[in-house]
Amino acid sequence: MTDLPAARRPAENAVPTRPKRAVIIGAGFGGLSLGIRLQSLGLDTVIVERLDGPGGRGYQKRTPDGYVFDMGPTVITVPHFLEELFRLERGQPALDGPDFPDDVRGAERVKTGDSGGPRTREYVQLRPILPFYRIVFDDGTYFDYDGDPENTRRQIRELAPQDLAGYERFHKDAQAIFERGFLELGYTHFGDVGTMLRVVPDLLKLDAVRTLFSFTSRYFQSDKLRQVFSFETLLVGGNPLSVPAIYAMIHFVEKTWGVHYAMGGTGALVRALERKYRELGGEVRYGAGVQGITVTDEWGRPVTRPVGPRVARGVTLDSGEELPADLVISNGDWANTYLKRVPAAARLVNNDLRVKAARQSMSLLVIYFGFRDDGRPLNLQHHNILLGPRYEALLREIFGDKTLGRDFSQYLHVPTLTDPSLAPPGHHAAYTLIPVPNAASGLDWTVEGPKLVDRVYAYLEGRGIIPGLRGRLTHSEYVTPDYFAGTLDSHLGNAFGPEPLLAQSAFFRPHNRSEDVRNLYLVGAGAQPGAGTPAVMMSAKMTARLIAEDLHLSLK
């Protein structure tokens, strides 16, 4: 340091100054939730978003012919997470209180009446959805999953009575995983190996490290019930054959707080979060993609090698404009944040080799369509899981072989059964989501996309799920992995970030506080704890706690 002018030398034992400005990259659920929390901490925050509106993966599209489509997440759970966000005020971060209500342990029945707290209702209307999902098997039979143990038992007696005792054991063991893995460890940031090692004995005791499908198969002989109690991880990008059994807690997350819908669509919830963020003084800039994150050494010099102090100083937008900042937080794709926006010379831990070696989640083909209501009743629910003739083999093709199979499964969302405002009078708006391989497959989606769309429409019509669908269509469009790779800038077109394998969970999942660059943080599906709207909101609180800790700010 002797070669530096005295004015540029860091003072010995200097106390870090409080940052005045934070830049968040991305206005998705994670970015907006964190923005609200940073504003409540007293920071001045600007969110920069490459799209023309909020939401990220949760973007909402309005069409000229009167349809409204949520482009991404549609399942809202754990409404008290939202209530906590809407209660925050400037100077009242509420980061040190209890994370969960005291009355959720040992819950036997879903709280169907909980449609959000009083502050939430000032911003958005949540409506409980029952059943949570209708799970339709290839033979036409179905299981209405609503979280009510008695109704679940009744359906098991009708579908596979030999598995009733197995359900009782599954219920007990999944509840134990939920209480330890979600209620107690849900907000744990695994930033060091020691934190991880301390919980391993408990996870082993709970048998939560074996694969979810293997775990479920211990309790159920019926293939149908094995699918019912393992499919949910597909909604967060996880292969039931590969994710650890700790994800059995999803069953209890939904069962404890229910599944909800935001009237007006998920986009209405996104706009409510944006409104709250702006009320706290936050700024949002749309059409502002980020070209790079500015990283220097401790004295403001360019970084030429991945050793020594590295500090985030702000971002450069695609327009060339530079935004200086004391903190930079990425709500964008983890892999592309590092590969595209952080100089290689500043990355020792998150180097190209490690990032590219990580396994990314599958991608999706999503069809957004509108159709006339011709008076025939739809034998559908708000959320429908339509399973194909193969389960395990299809999952291996999507996640392992990365090929398109001869059949498919899909999640069919028909929100106009709850909220007719999303379509013109006398019409329905729907989307159906088909898991497909990510871009590592090398598939040409300009060729495969139209063919798969035709097959899906033929299936929905031919099986009588939506009779006469193709003759009733008034709107049809779709996205493929190319949309995730291009518009959403996801590495390999992944739809949910890194695949939630055991080797990519907890300490082994990307850290919310960058290991490479000081004052750089991550939030959202690619960071801890993982994907899904409740996890992303948990990620925001987790990252806010790390920032408050690093800046010596009060958590109260």
Structural class estimated from helices and strands: alpha/beta
Residue stretches low in confidence (pLDDT < 50, at least 5 long) are: 1-15
Tally of helical segments: 17
Mean model confidence by pLDDT: 93
Account of the 3D structure:
- This protein is of the alpha/beta class and 556 residues long.
- Helix content is 32%, strand content 17%.
- The chain is built from 17 helices and 19 strands.
- The strands form 5 sheets. A 7-stranded mixed beta sheet has the order 7-6-15-16-17-14-18. The chain has a 5-stranded parallel beta sheet with strand order 9-2-1-13-19, covered by helices on one side.
- Helix 1 runs parallel beside helix 10 (266-279).
- It is globular.
- The two termini are 39 Å apart.
- Residues 1-15 have low confidence and may be disordered.
Short description:
The chain has 556 residues and is an alpha/beta fold.
Give a quick set of tags describing it.
556 residues, alpha/beta, seven-stranded mixed sheet, 19 strands
List the helices and strands and how they pair.
Elements: E1 21-25, H1 29-41, E2 44-49, E3 60-62, E4 68-70, H2 79-87, H3 118-121, E5 126-128, E6 133-136, E7 142-145, H4 149-159, H5 164-184, H6 193-205, H7 212-217, H8 223-228, H9 249-257, E8 260-262, H10 266-279, E9 283-286, E10 290-296, E11 311-317, E12 322-324, E13 327-330, H11 334-341, H12 352-357, E14 363-372, E15 383-386, H13 392-401, E16 410-413, E17 427-436, H14 445-462, H15 469-472, E18 473-479, H16 481-486, E19 520-522, H17 533-550
Parallel strand pairs: 1-2, 1-13, 2-9, 6-15, 13-19
Antiparallel strand pairs: 3-4, 5-8, 6-7, 10-11, 11-12, 14-17, 14-18, 15-16, 16-17
Helix pairs in contact: 1-10, 1-17, 5-9
